[in-house]
Amino acid sequence: MGRRRHRPLSLAIVALVVASAACAGIGESPATGSGPSMVSTTVSTTVSTTVATTKPPAPEASSTSVATGPAGESIQDLVADGSLEVDAVSPEGGISGTIVEVMLTNRSDEDLDAVIPCGLVFEPVPGVQEQRMMVIQPAAARVRPGASVTLRPFVACIDSNEEPASAGAVYLPASVADGDLLTFAQCLCRRDLGSELDPMTGGMDLQFAIWAVVDGDLQTWSGDPGDLAGALGDLTGESLDIDAEDLKELQGTNLDQIMAAMQTFMEQFGPGVRRWLDECGIDLAK
To answer: What are phi and psi for residue 143, nearest 5 degrees?
Structure first.
């Protein structure tokens, strides 16, 4: 799952703080069997993204073992044998929650018990610079021959240096997480996130924990003051790689106030970030 090196924090996160949108919006209740009702966090940005409008190709199958939760077969295995087609993976916009619809069609002459498993990663089509999304609570359904269903798994964005998934973007089920990220996904798959997410944080402590695993950086994502100062630096510097166009989004905002708000914002989630990692046996210091 190689990606280019992450910068410590993205403009999207800064915009989230400036807009005070850390806990905005309540996620919709998912379809039956698709996981708990979750908080959906959105970021207010002005980024416009060009999205391919052609029908996506069938995703590549994978034999990697993934914790599936509900009984049934992974959609990747069913796609591999030609029984199932993934018609569309459509984000609704946001960072985490039941924020993506996955439409499936049964191409066989038998009932299929299809599962969107934990650890499956949805990627934007080439050319779209948005975050990948990983399933952390599964969705499942029995699909009759020739019928189509739409499932809403719980997903979380996993690339802190990219913009959040935008509504209408085209995504594909592209890969399976590995290493600590897969371990984390499998652990979360066994949890009751519907009752465990802290309503005071809107689930952002868990989102930060996921970014910490991907970035291999616990200090920044748990609000360590020294590391945060280094990561943010001067917002006109290279640590955030913000260009002139990006800075227009922050026009009229006091940069010192942003730094102070970011510090407070990050610190309030630190204990939750560490708790999620500890309970799932993720040691980023190793």
So the answer is: -110, 120
Q: Is the pLDDT of residue 149 over 50?
A: yes
Rounded distance, CA 159 to CA 129, Å?
A: 10
Query: DSSP strand E in the chain: where?
Result: 73-74, 84-91, 96-97, 100-106, 112-116, 120-124, 133-137, 139-143, 148-151, 154-157, 171-176
**DSSP state for residue 163 in the 8-state scheme:** B
Contact 260, 31 (CB under 8 A): no
Rounded CA-CA distance 253/153 in Å is 37
DSSP type of residue 67: -
Q: What is the pTM of this model?
A: 0.71
DSSP string, 36-62: -----B------------SPPPPPPP-
Q: Are 223 and 22 in contact (CB under 8 A)?
A: no
pLDDT at position 277:
95
User: 49 and 163 in contact (C-beta within 8 Å)?
Assistant: yes
How distant is the alpha carbon of residue 254 from its chain centre? 30
Locate tokens 């802290």: which residue?
A: 198
Pairing between β-strand 84-91 and β-strand 100-106 as defined by DSSP bridges: antiparallel
Higher-confidence residue: 76 or 20? 76
pLDDT at 183: 97
Q: Using alpha carbons, select from 158, 188, 182, 179 the residue that is nearest to residue 279.
A: 188
Using the 8-state DSSP alphabet, how is residue 243 labeled? -
Q: Give the position of tokens 């939750």.
A: 272
Phi, psi of 275 (to 5 degrees): -65, -45
